[in-house]
Design a protein that fits this description.
With about 180 residues, this protein is of the alpha+beta class. The protein has three helices and six strands. The chain has helices at about 5-35, 70-90, 145-155; strands spanning about 55-65, 100-110, 115, 120, 125-135, 155-165. The relative contact order is 0.20.
Length: about 180
């Protein structure tokens, strides 16, 4: 830094300091006057939360099946999922609360084997089919039975449960305030 730039820096610092002093001085005078006149100020701050018990659950259930061919794996998966969907319908879950979330068909390869000349190419040994559904359960009293029946009939993957509310509109009355 040169002497000239140090001098400029000193002037800038002085200007900032004087500006701050002149900005604070009137506030101190106003505070002192309010105190003399007996004017009091009250500041209030608050926070709050509102909670509501869940009244529905969203499940992600999946059926995984394997077969020698993609067709065999898909047929086995379809049969198991049909039983699960029938049971869900019998438990009172309406069709609009059932949704297919995903279907995948994947080959399962053998392990590469090392030979004298290198590695053998992996071969397809079988196929795996996964079918995932999303289920909204609006009667939480039935949730345990629905999960148990689903697993008994073929659900062997997924199984996540998310709790929530059927009515997603803003809460009314005192619950709305935070």
């Amino acid at each position: 830094m040169t002497l000239k730039s140090l001098s400029s820096f000193g002037k800038m610092t002085s200007i900032v300091l004087l500006s701050t002093v002149f900005a604070i001085a009137p506030m101190q005078t106003a505070i002192a006057e309010n105190h003399k006149q007996g004017v009091n100020t009250i500041s209030v701050s608050a926070t709050g939360t509102a909670a509501k018990a869940p009244d529905m659950a969203t499940l992600r259930l999946a059926v995984l099946r394997e077969g020698e061919t993609a067709r065999q794996a898909l047929s086995a998966n379809n049969d198991a999922m049909a039983k699960v969907l029938e049971a869900l319908s019998g438990a009172g879950v309406p069709p609009e609360d059932l949704q297919t979330s995903g279907i995948s068909i994947q080959p399962i390869y053998s392990q590469s084997v090392k030979t004298l000349t290198g590695y053998e190419q992996p071969k397809i040994e079988s196929y795996r089919v996964s079918n995932t559904i999303t289920v909204r359960v609006r009667d939480l009293a039935k949730l345990g039975t629905i999960l148990d029946t689903s697993v008994t009939l073929g659900v062997n993957s997924g199984g996540s449960v998310r709790f929530g509310h059927q009515d997603r509109s803003p809460r009314k009355g005192r619950e709305k305030r935070n």
